[in-house]
Amino acid sequence: MANDGPAPSAAEPSAASGFPLPSQIADVPGAEGWRDMYRYFTRFQPEDDQRFWFYNSMHFPEPMPAFDTITAELPYSAIGANTARLFVFPTTLGIEHRIVNGRVYITANPVLDPGEVERRSEQFGPRAGYYFEHWDELYEGWKDRMRALIAEIEAIEVPELTEWEPAEVVFQALGVAQNHYLRENFHKVLALYSRMWHHHTEMLMLGYGAYVVFFQFCTQAFPEVSDQAVARMVAGIDVIMYRPDDELRRLARLAVDLGVDDLFAEGTAAGDVVAALRDRGEAGLAWLSELDKARDPWFHVSTGDGFYHHHLSWNDDLTVPFAALAGYVTAVRAGTLQARPTAQLLRERDRIATGYRELLASDEERAAFDQMLGLCRLVFPFVEDHKFYCEHHFTTRFFQKVKAFGALLARQGVIGQADDVFHLHHTEIDQALSDVSLAWAAGSPPLGGRHFPSIIAERKRMLEVLRDWSPPPALGPVPEALNDPAVRMLWGVTQERVEQWLRPDADELHGVAASPGVVEGIARVLADVSQIGDLREGEILVAPVTAPSWAPVFAKIKAAVSDIGGAMSHAAIVAREYGMPAVVGTGDATKRIRTGDTIAVNGDRGTVRVIESR
Amino acid sequence: MSQRLCLPLPEAPGAAAAGGKAASLGELTRAGLRVPPGFVVTTGAFAAAMAVIDPDGRRRAGIGALSPDDLAAITATAGQFRERVTAAALPAPVAAAITAAYAGLAADAPPGGATQAGGGPLVAVRSSATMEDSAEASFAGLQGTYLAIRDTRGVLDAVRRCWASLYSDESVAYRRRGGLPEPPAAMAVVVQVMVSPRAAGVMFTRSPVTGDRSVVAIEATWGLGSVLVSGDVTPDSFTVSKVTGEITARRICPKAITHSLIHNETGPRVTETPAARRDQPCLTDDEIRALATVAGPVEARFGTPQDIEWAVLGGDAPAADRVVLLQSRPETAWAARDAARKAPVATPRRRAADHVLSLFARPL
Questions:
Q1: I need a surface site. Which of A49, A229, A443, A567 has the fewest CB within 10 A?
Q2: Is the domain defined by A506-612 classed in CATH 3.30.1330.30?
């Protein structure tokens, strides 16, 4: 398996394009065995040299642990099914992905033949039209289905493998022993995750489509309009993603009202605060009971964006919400904790839309503008809120469940600890579960303990080595026109972006101009939100991604930079509300910038420059 | 004589009597915008002067008979006439009116306005032509502008030179090529107190590059804006959204030369910009926003996109109180393109969703 890839060779840029060909990517010394981590269908093929691929740093900024490749496998299964086969988008089929040196590269399959586009259009019109026409009721049904899916994954049990079956299995004549459910329930976890991704894309591609149409109109009518101004006309105000942070503010106020606020001193561990509250009599218990209400569902929020198993939820680790609570309690006492000014934000959104509308050249254009903006505002509650249901609530539950299977495998001695399960591909976990099932049935120990630990140790070592590899932003020949609407829509890969990749500047990073302004300052690179205690007032936050769980950080910083995200991402929205510059989706800011570096963030142009290295 | 010879800017009449520049300055002051005080020497004063210089109009008719291709004749004839205009004594009522109006300016010199010890205020004397906008625009820089004039005699001289500039070789050649009548429409003159700004420049109430009407494009440099006309400096440029107020683009350029106003010197002094300031933005964000905030009312007042000359004074006052406007004229290049544009960006469709369907029915 380790030898079926291209022979290692020095990567030379192909003359025609300036990007290396996939076949020219050399193995990283010390991680030559990376192919062992990934399945055959993710491998670059010789004919892939003819196509243009780009590194999906937006979703996959780190080398992939073997299990986490499922966050590429199933989303791309769902997206392609949606565009190519479900709605039959005329100009685009699906997305293909490949993994090399642990990094995910993707390309889209466009439809170029005009006859074929025409044939697909006949299908696309009525299918997409149906969803747009019934959007609100379909979205209501969607939420019901998603809640049911979440309940289903929460209910899945990992068999205990007790010595004997419980008696009712016999007396109720159930007839099926626990070891059967090892694989059935594991398969159900995977199947539910796949289902979630199908629902994720079900309405999202059309929702983005509505936004792209409006965006194009705005940039044609107002060539110098900023991405952010367009986003602000559309953005929802009462968005579900603000709820987790709102809950923390509520709990902070409650702590003050109940007179238990003294227990929330900055730097106290979450467990110690909870213990102290339990000892505080009725008031402490009252607060804890409100905490429990808030935790389900609002603490099922990822500290990342749900594409890696280590993007934990607040419920997995209370450090983050409790660090924020300490700050909010202080603000309540000082009388400075304010609710989001939703009415004002709403007026501002309408004022901007009215402002641009009035500047249009004719009533005809204004009528078209009204239609497009109306459609965007119709679809945007879904576009903004689906993430809470999918990437946050469902996905954090999904990873917890997989980890519970990992705990079982660890108890059975197949792997060292529960988290090691994420270094196995889901098909390998399936094998391990077969092993455990057989062993339990036979009354003998599983054999996996002799097989998996060395593989897992080697994979952990290789991932560390691969972390230092700088993946080229793209591979293969640049096509004459980058005209796939899906690629532009989802990843912002445009001709200009590719040209930037071809002229790299060692000290300048390019991303999405998410919130305007220019500022210089000291960088604080945080790998994840649990490190927010390190952040000093007035620093510039540099993070892989910011989720709603990061919201408390924004009161302290003067600009934000992220590896992942677009103009509608959480970091962008919050930065605009705080009026601070932000550049998101840089791909690798957390790698190229170090804490203590002096950096200049240009939120107008979407660039970050390292002025002075620490 | 039915027409007044000099009028303070707030009373400046339309372009026929005051010329385009003075008429627009009058409009700006009446709109409550901050404009340095000044007065207009009307076309009535010009006519009174011409009644002495060329009483029967024969000389001017002679200029009108010149062939556009005979540059030598244009140079000779126009040059002769200019000499007459600048040499002739002003009719007494005209000289008296200008003298009185200039004396009146000393009384209400503005904050930041330049005065000099024991004298009247430093003023800019600029021609204010009555021709249509596009023609005037194409004459930009051809007609007279005299900066930092410091006394009554200087003002009287500069007014005559402004009149004479109507007969510059280029202007005459332009009119001959266009077959425009001679004597041409008359020439008014603006006399305005000069300010000594920290920074100055121009702004367009639509993008000069893309025609985008939702932005204000600002070009700015240290000191007097005259350095931009001289072409010695590439200005800083800033783009501000009229709708959101955000500064969406900024380009800072090395501004090697500064023009500044020096008391008791005629004309701006040209110096090298100190190295420390050269590459610094010459406007603060507050100043940029204050300028953009003024642009909207100016555009609204005239009803079309404008090209505005402005200055920002120094001092501690809020930025909005330090902005003064020096001139506003209609933007013409994009107006012509708009008129020629056929298709709207998009038209309404039967259903809103049809916009999306058509997007994906063809490659972007």
A1: A443
A2: no
